Amino acid sequence: MHDASLPQTDVHNAAFKKLHSVVNCGIVTGESQSVIVMGPKGVGKSTLVKSVLKHIQDDENVDNESFTVVHVNGFIHRDDAAALKHIASSLSISDASDDTPTNVQDDD
To answer: Using the 8-state DSSP alphabet, how is residue 85 labeled?
Structure first.
């Protein structure tokens, strides 16, 4: 079911299924979803996330134009302001340095 780079254990399979469900639901329904993936260094957190995203992006039933993946790295984006500025920049939202909330709306 998932990327061969992830170990085929019950724990990894359960984590893949849960994360896939949450991310896919957010994309399909448009609901805002937040997930925190925690664990010790080297257990496969990044690999899990990349595997789920790849699986969703490869799914023929998912419109890849309906979502955007933005990578935020805690070593580079050391505080909320830096992370939000990077996210806004990645999504091409103007006035990323402004402290006021920016609403992003579709023209639909």
So the answer is: H
State pTM to two decimals. Answer: 0.69
Provide the pLDDT for residue 108.
42
Mean pLDDT of the chain: 81
Please tell me the distance from the alpha carbon of residue 58 to that of residue 62, in angstroms, as a whole number: 8
Cβ atoms of 88 and 102 closer than 8 Å:
yes
Distance, in Å, from the CA atom of 11 to the CA atom of 76, rounded to the nearest integer, reads 30
Cβ neighbours for 25, distance < 8 A, ≥ 6 positions apart: 31, 33
Round to the nearest angstrom and report the end-to-end CA distance of the chain: 35
**Residues 7-36 pLDDT 10s:** 788 888 999 999 999 999 988 888 887 788
